[in-house]
Design goal:
- The protein is mainly alpha-helical and 209 residues long.
- It is built from 9 helices and 5 strands; from the N terminus they run αβααββααααβααβ.
- The strands form 2 sheets. It has a 3-stranded antiparallel beta sheet with strand order 1-3-2. A two-stranded antiparallel ribbon has the order 4-5.
- Helix 2 crosses helix 3, helix 5 runs antiparallel to helix 6 and helix 8 runs antiparallel to helix 9.
- The protein starts with a helix and ends with a strand.
- The relative contact order is 0.14.
């Protein structure tokens, strides 16, 4: 029974974490264990355990009156995590430039072409952009880096908010892709760092990185 609860807890935690990261569950939104249990087809026990796990990760907060709610990211930690992400992702791009194969490059180009063609208010962009960045992380061939980036994206609650258009973001992705295709680790690292640090997590309003 314990092992069954552990596996269901992992599943529920992953599903709720994704809803928070993508913004489907907004900051301050109250979460009801019964509703989540029905939504995911499990009992309330793994839901409760998953919510406590996400509370320890800082994604949820719990008080005696409202129960569990989605945490509002604080400015300081967001800025710090954003800079750490820029440093780690530029390292990932450097590693990927040495290891990426034709299939990886083709996948990145296909994702970027889809993003380029979307209107700036299209909600599909968020998931495509996430897949683009995580494809780069995967091509780096470092399980540790991949795990760290999952934690950082969760801590960023869906990422920083920037004002550049989808077309501009795709153009910057093109520059990263050129460096990856050339096997130029230094250029891949530099262009990735510039792409991420071009965002302003304080002033800007649209999710697009």
């Amino acid at each position: 029974m314990t092992g069954d609860y552990v596996s269901k807890t992992d599943l529920v935690a992953a599903l709720v974490r994704e809803l928070v990261i993508t913004g489907e569950l907004a900051a301050g939104e109250q979460l009801r264990q019964r509703d989540l249990a029905q939504r995911f087809g499990v009992s309330q026990t793994p839901v409760r355990e998953a919510m406590r796990r996400l509370e320890s990760e800082g994604l949820l907060v719990c008080d005696t009156h409202r129960g569990f709610t989605v945490a509002a990211p604080e400015l300081g930690p967001v800025e710090e995590n954003f800079r750490v992400r820029a440093a780690l992702e530029s390292l990932g791009a450097s590693l990927a430039a040495r290891k990426i194969d034709a299939a990886g490059l083709d996948r990145l180009r296909a994702l970027n072409d889809q993003m380029r063609d979307l209107p700036d208010d299209d909600p599909r962009y968020l998931e495509l952009n996430r897949e683009f960045h995580f494809t780069v992380y995967s091509c780096a061939g470092s399980p540790l880096l991949l795990s760290l980036m999952r934690l950082l994206w969760a801590a960023l609650h869906g990422g920083p908010r920037v004002t550049r258009t989808h077309a501009e973001s795709a153009r910057q992705h093109d520059e990263i892709l050129t460096a990856l295709a050339d096997g130029d680790a230094a250029a891949a690292s530099a262009r990735t760092y510039q792409h991420i640090m071009g965002a302003d997590p304080v002033k800007d309003t649209e999710t697009d990185y």
